[in-house]
Amino acid sequence: EIVLTQSPGTLSLSPGERATLSCRASQSVSSSYLAWYQQKPGQAPRLLIYGASSRATGIPDRFSGSGSGTDFTLTISRLEPEDFAVYYCQQYGSSPGFGQGTRLEIK
Amino acid sequence: QVQLQESGPGLVKPSETLSLTCTVSGGSISSYYWSWIRQPAGKGLEWIGRIYTSGSTNYNPSLKSRVTMSVDTSKNQFSLKLSSVTAADTAVYYCARDRYAFDIWGQGTMVTVSS
Known about the structure:
heterodimer; A: mainly beta; 7-stranded mixed beta sheet; 4-stranded antiparallel beta sheet; 11 strands; 50% strand; B: mainly beta; 55% strand; globular
């Protein structure tokens, strides 16, 4: 079982700043089968990034993903007010799993 | 565009079986994997299992003994049954299209396990 650990647990930033979220896997994630989701209160998660670095349909280009093997990063280049939410990474394989989430809050 | 909608009882008694259905609209259910994911209040996401439209399944090992999934392509629906539920199964249950990443989600349905 691959365990994903996200850091930090909470990130406090201001609109306009750059956000860097980390996701570390307990073993290598094959073929960059790594995705990122955004979840706002009372809503279902929304797919942002798949294949570690490909943006999903309709996702603004301020969101970018990078990494390989066991270390992955989600970067939001310039935070907009609507970006403050919880972010999850996820590995997909025979038994998909999610990280515990990073809460991005307004400073 | 494809939309998913979960349906089923919002309250289930302990030891009974939770049953949910996900209806796919705006597109065909065929030739995709479909998953169930749950989220207890204030907590993270847990993948429950997936089904292909052929009926082949893959379950979370931690839930495998209690989970059964099925698909009805004629109705564009797939279903989840979780047996012997306890309070720990109280959560929002989501269905999602599974293209290895979950690219389309239902709005979720809250299921409470209580007598």
